[in-house]
Structure formats: C-alpha cells, structure tokens
Specification:
Layout: H1 7-10, E1 13-16, E2 22-25, E3 44-48, E4 62-66, E5 70-71, E6 77-78, H2 82-92, H3 97-101, H4 105-113, H5 115-118, H6 120-131
Antiparallel strand pairs: 1-2, 3-4, 5-6
Helix pairs in contact: 2-6
C-alpha cells in the first residue's frame, strides 16, 4: 500500500502565490476570492458539505461537484462515455472491444479468445453496460445514454 501514490498528493490543488511558489491545498473551493470559472478546474461547482452546521466561526467545508463528463476531486479527468461503451459492446463485444475500452485488458483478451464466452458473456455485457454506468479504470462512465 505504501508503493501506491498518495491520494492527497495526486489530486491536490496547487495555488500559485505572489512569490512564485506554489502552495498545495485540498481543493480549489478553499481558495477565497477565486473566480467561479477557475474553481473545480472549470468543470464543476463548489458545494458546501454540511450547510446545517451551526458553527459560524469556522469556514464551511466545501468540495467540487463535477459536471456529468468529469471526475476526480478537482474535476480534471474526463470520464469515458457509456454510449460509446454500449455501442462497442453491441457491435464488437464478442471480440472484447467494450472491455478494452473500459481499460480491462486482461478480461478483454479472455473475452476475445472465447468469442464472448460463446455469446453468453457478450449478451451479459450488453445488458450490464447498457443498464447503468459501470466502472472503467478509475471512475464510472459518464451516464450519456438516452
């Protein structure tokens, strides 16, 4: 577990100070006076975590709520499309193209070598991917199916 990169270091927000040095903070919602277009990398909006807290002495804890096609704590990572994954599953699922698109390379090669589990795995994946946004490498797919 120590060999994996730190979550806080990977997704930190680096704020450039007037001195030219950068200061790392948890997210851009904590920066006072930052324009809304710059918060959450411009791909989301700040949302207060618990607005019912009566303690007015401390600043409320806020986090980025990303728009549909974006992910990660600072909304910098584009999600993969559920519609594209579904079309790949319908037309190339027996070859494992859908799982390859999702970043599941080993599963994709097994699916290719069995021709979609002789069709059963292919049908399962068409329903699985078409029913709800599934996980790709790190994040769920963007729910863009009609």
């Amino acid at each position: 577990w120590e060999s994996r990169p730190s979550y806080l270091l990977t997704f930190q927000y680096l704020m450039l100070e007037k001195t030219g040095r950068s200061q790392a903070i948890l997210n851009s919602c904590e920066v006072v006076g930052l324009q809304k277009e710059q918060q959450c990398s411009g791909n989301g909006m700040c949302k207060v975590w618990n607005a019912t807290v009566a303690d007015t002495a401390a600043a409320p804890l806020s986090f980025c709520e990303c728009y549909r096609d974006w992910a990660d704590p600072e909304c910098r990572t584009r999600r993969k499309s559920q519609a594209k994954a579904f079309l790949l599953s319908v037309f190339g699922g027996y070859l494992g193209l859908d799982r390859f698109y999702l970043g599941q390379y080993y599963v994709s090669f097994v699916k290719l070598s069995t021709l979609g589990g002789l069709g059963a795995w292919w049908v399962f994946d068409v329903v699985y991917i078409g029913s709800s946004p599934v996980y790709a490498n790190n994040y769920r797919l963007a729910p863009d199916l009609p």
